[in-house]
């Protein structure tokens, strides 16, 4: 983009408030649409003055949690996607493409299957373990003679993701039929079952992972110049890379174990934001997060209205948008 | 004032089992223009990376003034030594100004946000390197010579006393190469920088350097003033008996001997 000024706090605040406005719009759309239509006016009244009415119940028990979960998931997926793109120096990376999302899902399925329920205050440890092992493995596969070949790494990620999906399918065939539908829906990415308990459990972990990412984000700018240049500029590449890998796997795991695999959001949104506002991650990360939150909420509105009264898993909607976009990037937009 | 700013002591280094540097010891004086010359694969790049602590030597020590370099953090090193690698491709479309501002990183606080002063320093660095008019251009869309000047401006924004540059003229045409060398000479003389350049171009180095270190196969062949490095006897030990030295005005140049033979035959 021409005439782009370098990063300043005031520019960040300006751009962010723009996207907060978008999020606000998607909030009102989200709480008013669904199988029962709620007028904007009665929605606003019941939010400002909660009462015992039907409308109020629908908003507080169903639509608000669903909006919050969607927004949190969108924020997390886009933040982790943008981080993966920065550390791998490749705009085609995200937790889905790198197999990290499938790894988290497999971790969550195994956890459910053997009823370990290994969680720490609601944090899905098993899912996180799988996610961080996956990213470590994919990184190892991409290293050729000490330099990172991102093409190889993404290929390894896609293959690993497919392998994990096969593992999940295998496990699903062992399950009794009545459990199957629930897990199947969850796997494809689903926000319809989100309740306020889920939101309360997930959000602290998302905050714990997001805050350090945002604080050390400037190092990602330097790392995108390569490890050696980053270290000549004063960044310790090994510890910084490890921190980013762990934090973004952490984010992915906490979302996937609740909402299933919602692909491509973390790819599309950071990419579009980068085209419009430039690659400086100090702006890119928070703006992508808020834009991603809005995007996911809007996708969820499509998911719940397009075949109303039945619902489509949100992962299907994002894949419909995302897969063609990914292919377009791969063929026509690579430099 | 002949203070030693960088000192390498008995450095050994190998990649896997292939020895790259063998028993390298030398010192760099404050404010000098120091050339590291040698054929491709002689270990120049590795040596530069060891000098700023990106690589750790197997044996031996690197000192910045009196401190062992590995006792300093990356940020502390970056405030003292800047490094311009041979190839620097940014995968994302940063502007020239954003790129130069990255040089301020070691001076920033925990949140990594530049202040007024950082913007001024970056602007001055761009001015000195004659890239200020390109500040809003994207680094992926400028010429090779311009990219090199941006990289030097970023190193300058680091405000480090020592600048290490790896083949800064390798991919450039002759006029851009001379511009870059003049710029670096200017930084040495006016900004009091200590400039260390690795290059295989002996003629370019000898025109600008105070001293040249000639290395081959990871060993030091000679460290001396350019006029004494450019002698047939010294060069023979590195390149074989194929080079000769001619003097034009006050300057020495290396030329292939084959030319001499060829010239005699045609005359």
Overall, the morphology of chain A is globular
Mean pLDDT of chain A: 87
Termini distance of chain A?
16 Å
Q: Which structural class best describes the helix and strand composition of chain B?
A: alpha/beta
Specify the number of helices of chain A. 14
Oligomer: heterodimer
Q: Could you characterize the architecture of this molecule?
A:
With 335 residues, chain A is mainly alpha-helical. Chain A is built from 14 helices and four strands. In chain A, strand 1 and strand 2 (123-124) form a beta hairpin. Chain B has 267 residues and is of the alpha/beta class. Chain B is 35% helix and 28% strand. Chain B has ten helices and twelve strands. In chain B, helix 6 links the parallel strand 7 and strand 8. The longest helix of chain B has 17 residues, at 174-190. The model of chain B has no long low-confidence stretch (mean pLDDT 90). At the A-B interface, helix 9 and helix 10 of A face helix 2, strand 6 and helix 3 of B.
Question: Care to give the gist of this entry?
Answer:
Chain A has 335 residues and is mainly α.
What distinguishing features does this structure have?
A: 335 residues; mainly alpha; 4 strands; 74% helix; globular; B: 267 residues; alpha/beta; six-stranded mixed sheet; four-stranded antiparallel sheet; 12 strands
Topology:
The complex is a heterodimer of chains A (about 325) and B (about 270).
Chain A: H1 9-32, H2 40-48, H3 54-88, H4 100-113, E1 119-120, E2 123-124, H5 125-142, E3 143-144, E4 147-148, H6 150-174, H7 177-187, H8 196-215, H9 218-223, H10 227-232, H11 237-259, H12 265-277, H13 281-305, H14 314-332
Helix pairs in contact in A: 1-3, 1-13, 2-3, 3-8, 3-11, 3-12, 3-13, 4-5, 4-6, 4-11, 5-6, 5-11, 8-11, 12-13, 13-14
Chain B: E1 4-15, E2 18-29, E3 33-37, H1 44-51, E4 59-64, E5 67-68, H2 74-80, E6 81-84, H3 96-101, H4 116-128, H5 144-157, E7 162-166, H6 174-190, E8 194-199, H7 202-208, E9 211-216, E10 219-224, H8 226-229, H9 232-239, E11 243-248, E12 251-256, H10 257-266
Parallel strand pairs in B: 3-8, 3-9, 6-7, 7-8
Antiparallel strand pairs in B: 1-2, 1-4, 4-5, 9-10, 11-12
């Amino acid at each position: 983009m021409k005439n782009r000024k370098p990063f300043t706090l005031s520019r960040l605040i300006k751009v962010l408030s723009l996207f907060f406005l978008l999020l606000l719009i998607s909030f009102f759309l989200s709480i008013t649409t669904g199988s029962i239509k709620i007028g904007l006016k009665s929605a606003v009244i019941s939010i400002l003055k909660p009462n015992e009415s039907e409308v109020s119940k629908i908003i507080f028990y169903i639509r608000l949690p669903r909006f919050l979960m969607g927004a949190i998931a969108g924020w997390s997926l886009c933040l982790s996607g943008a981080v993966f793109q920065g550390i791998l120096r490749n705009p085609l990376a995200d937790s889905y493409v790198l197999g990290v999302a499938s790894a988290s899902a497999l971790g969550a399925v195994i956890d459910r299957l053997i009823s370990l329920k290994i969680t720490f205050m609601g944090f899905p440890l098993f899912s996180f373990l799988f996610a961080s092992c996956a990213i470590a493995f994919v990184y190892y596969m991409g290293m050729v003679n000490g330099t990172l070949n991102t093409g190889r790494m993404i290929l390894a990620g896609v293959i690993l993701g497919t392998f994990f999906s096969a593992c999940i399918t295998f496990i699903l065939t062992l399950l009794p039929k009545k459990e199957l539908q629930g897990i199947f829906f969850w796997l494809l990415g689903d926000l319809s079952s989100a309740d306020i308990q889920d939101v309360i459990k997930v959000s602290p972990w998302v905050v714990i992972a997001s805050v350090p990412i945002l604080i050390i984000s400037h190092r990602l700018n330097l790392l995108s110049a390569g490890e050696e240049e980053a270290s000549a500029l004063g960044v310790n590449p090994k510890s910084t890379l490890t921190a980013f890998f762990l934090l973004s796997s952490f984010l992915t795991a906490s979302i996937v174990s609740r909402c299933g695999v919602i692909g491509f959001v973390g790819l599309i949104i950071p990419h579009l934001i980068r085209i419009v506002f430039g690659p400086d991650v100090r702006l890119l990360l928070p703006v992508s997060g808020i834009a991603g939150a809005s995007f996911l909420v809007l996708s969820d509105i499509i998911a719940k209205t397009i075949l109303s009264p039945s619902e489509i898993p949100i992962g299907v909607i994002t894949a419909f948008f995302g897969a063609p976009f990914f292919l377009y990037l791969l063929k026509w937009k690579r430099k | 004032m002949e203070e030693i700013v960088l000192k390498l002591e008995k450095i050994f280094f190998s990649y896997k089992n292939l020895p790259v540097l063998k028993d390298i010891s030398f010192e760099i004086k404050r404010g000098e223009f120091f050339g590291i010359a040698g054929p491709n694969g002689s270990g120049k790049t590795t040596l530069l990376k060891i000098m700023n602590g990106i690589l750790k030597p197997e044996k031996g020590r690197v000192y910045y003034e009196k401190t062992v370099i590995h006792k300093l953090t990356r940020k502390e090193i970056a405030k003292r030594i800047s490094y311009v690698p041979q190839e620097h491709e940014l995968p994302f479309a940063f502007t020239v100004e954003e790129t130069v501002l990255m040089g301020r990183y070691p001076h920033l606080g925990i949140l990594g946000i530049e202040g007024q002063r950082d913007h001024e320093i970056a602007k001055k660095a761009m001015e000195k390197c004659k890239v200020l008019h390109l500040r809003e251009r994207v680094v992926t869309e400028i010429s090779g010579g311009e990219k090199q000047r941006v990289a030097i401006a970023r190193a300058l924004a680091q405000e480090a006393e020592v600048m290490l540059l790896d083949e800064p003229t390798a991919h450039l045409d002759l006029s851009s190469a001379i511009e870059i060398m003049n710029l670096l000479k200017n930084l040495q003389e006016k900004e009091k920088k200590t400039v260390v350049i690795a290059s295989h171009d002996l003629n370019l180095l000898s025109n600008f350097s105070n001293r040249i270190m000639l290395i081959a196969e990871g060993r030091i062949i000679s460290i001396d003033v350019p006029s004494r490095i450019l002698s047939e006897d010294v060069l023979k030990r590195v390149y074989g008996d194929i080079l000769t030295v001619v003097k034009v005005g006050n300057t020495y140049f290396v030329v292939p001997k084959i030319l001499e033979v060829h010239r005699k035959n045609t005359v």
